[in-house]
Structure formats: structure tokens, C-alpha cells
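writing this on my phone so excuse typos. first protein, seq and then structure
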Amino acid sequence: MTARIRLATDLDQGEVLRLRLEFIADVRGVGAATFEPAFVDATRAYLDDVTRLGRIRSWLARPADASPAVGIISVLRNDAPPLPEQHLAHEGYVVNLWIAPSARRQGIARALLQTAIDDAASWGLRRLYLFATDDGRPLYEDSGFAPDPRWMARRIDATA
């Protein structure tokens, strides 16, 4: 399958939302239709907000026949304090890279990832980071991403 990659626009928000939900459903092993409407609405509102603020870039992979997109990568630009060795004050969090199962193993994920990597410097990013799935890890390693044992995270219970 040949896919054309292009930067998503405001007109693509519905497709970006659909693909984000498909990504989450795939990672969790459920169908996207099982998500509660409140979650879908919260995701839509979030995407609208970060898009309006210019804090996210998404690229879509669309088959040559112009059918719906079969892949997406989204990078969220986050502020980060400058470092002595790197004065740039932005980092890019790859919030999703997803390819429809029927379009996998055809180089689309690699092309999407390379597009985001190529764009990072023009957006003023000093690094890209992500949380890799086991299936995605080889692609990220082949593309120059390395695990960082210093990174730790703690979930916060917002109801407490």
C-alpha cells in the first residue's frame, strides 16, 4: 500500500480524534466503540485546545485512493527549562504513532516517525520522547531513540 503523509489541518480534527481513539483502543485491547461518550468528548476537547494553542502537530497517512487515513503520529510540544548544554526550551512528546492493522508492516510507521523527527528542529524541539509499546520499541530504537533509566513517573489520583 502506498500512503501519502501530510500534516493534519483543522479540517482533519475528526480524523485525528478517530485515530487517537483507535490507538488507545488498540493498546488496551478493546474496541473504540466501548469508550464512554464522556471520554470521547474529553479527548475531543483536549485535541481542540492543544490545536488552538499550536501545541500539537499530527501527520496523517492516507492511502493513494483517498480513503480514510490508516495511520497517524502526533507530537505534543511541551515547555522545558533550558539546560546549560541546550538552550532550547521545548520538547516533543510523541503521544501516539498508530497504524491500522491492515496497513502494518509496509513502512508507514517508519515514514510517519521520520516525518516527525525531520520536523522537530523547525519547531524548536530539543528532543522527542515517548512511551514505547513492546511492538513499537524496535522501530524507535532503529530510529535513534534510546531508553533512559533516569526517567520515573508517578500517577496522581485526582480524586484524593
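second protein below, same order as before
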Amino acid sequence: MRFHTRKRRTPSIIIVSLIDILAILLIFFIVTTTFRKEQPRLQINLPESKTAENVASEDQEPLVLRIKSAEEITFDNQPVALESIAQAIQSARASQPNRGVAMQADRDAPFGVVVKVLDALKLAGLKNIPTFTQPDAAKP
């Protein structure tokens, strides 16, 4: 009796489909990393304002002073003590005179701390500091 034996084929991996999957993954990772924004170290809940105005952005982003509490104050994404805000602003303005300074204060930041920061800004020679707010939710 003769048995019919089949020739065994060696399994082959289809490379074309693997290259397609690799290309799709590469495109996905490139797209997701390019749209990532730099997150500040200090997360702020901005207060709402009914009368706030949008200001056209300048050529350069302003140096941002963020206030969360007396212990959590950052200037240009660097932690700064309440007592040394004026010196930090003066040194930053000396090295980058064309950049403005703006302030972000948390809605729950103590008012006394905000007043001390405003005093430090005045000592640094700044007047009319723009502040960041979010639009009023009740505003149509």
C-alpha cells in the first residue's frame, strides 16, 4: 500500500503587511508627539471674567508668573520664592528685554499673596500687568 505524502511547504512570513503595520505605528507616534504641548509645572484654575478681552499675541510669548499659593509660585516655569520675585523679574527682563511679563493667579490663591506679588511686580518696575482668565461660563 502506498500512502500519498504531501510535500511540506516551509512557512513564510508575509513581510509586506508587517511593513504596513510598522509604517502606521510610526506615523501614529510622530503625530502624537508633535501635537504635545509643554505643560507648566504648576496647574492653575483660572478665575472667570465677564469683561476680559482677548489680546493679540506678540511675536514672543510673555514670561508667565504663576501663583497657586505662597509656597507655589513659578516664574518662567522655574520655582521662585515670594521674596525674590522682583530680582527674578529684573534679571529676566535684563537678559530678554523684548519679552513681556504676564500673571496667572489661581482662583483659590490667597488674596494677600496676590497683593504681595503685585507689590513685587511694582518694585521690579512693571505696570499694567496682563493677567490670564477664562471666559465666564454664563456668558452667551
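The chain has a mean pLDDT of 79. thats all i got for now
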